[in-house]
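Q&A log
Question type: sequence-to-structure
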Amino acid sequence: MMTVSQPAYAQQEADTTSVSGPDLRIPSDERLQEISEMRKYAYNEPQQALSLWDKVVIAVQQWLRNLLDNQWIEYFLKGSAILIFIVVLLALINQMMKGEIKSAITGKKDRTLLNLNIDDGDLNTTNIDTLIGQALDKKNYGLAVRFLYQKSLLLLKDHELVHIKQDKTNYEYLKELEDHPSASYFDRLTYFHEYIDYGHFEIDKERYQKVSAVFSQFQKSLNA
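Response status: OK
Response body:
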């Protein structure tokens, strides 16, 4: 009887399936725990102990978080921010209005303010001296400086060095003096006047005496 031989590829497939693969060794749970505790497998950096400063910073941050979580504190901070904004805004408006914001609100002119560039025919050096004396008696040195500056303008007018007009600026008066010896002293008096009147800085008796000394030098320079 003839036997039929199997194809070569079928024989190869049979040989392949007959070969068994390697056995997989699965470690026990105890072994896995032991391996995880070995130092050579510890890849995480060890945690450093917190310094005193770190602890203080963390405590402050936590305190701020707790503080900001308080609804009343939030209302207070928002209200304070709005109030500060309003105060700064009013201060800027008052500065632009040269200190007359109160007059704009009430509709009443502040009697302590003095318009120094008004051509007033009734004003002369004699009654200006009276006004200066009254201001000094009340220790209102800022007002005394304003009248002192007004007197310097009247003296310049009397010496025909400037022409006083209502819409003239202090810079225009200085320009009229040109190289006259009184120009530097008048420039200094103008600085004092603007510093006190427009900057709203209070001065005491000692500072007023310094302004008065400059005015005395100004008077002497008029006759130079």
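Response note: The mean pLDDT is 75.
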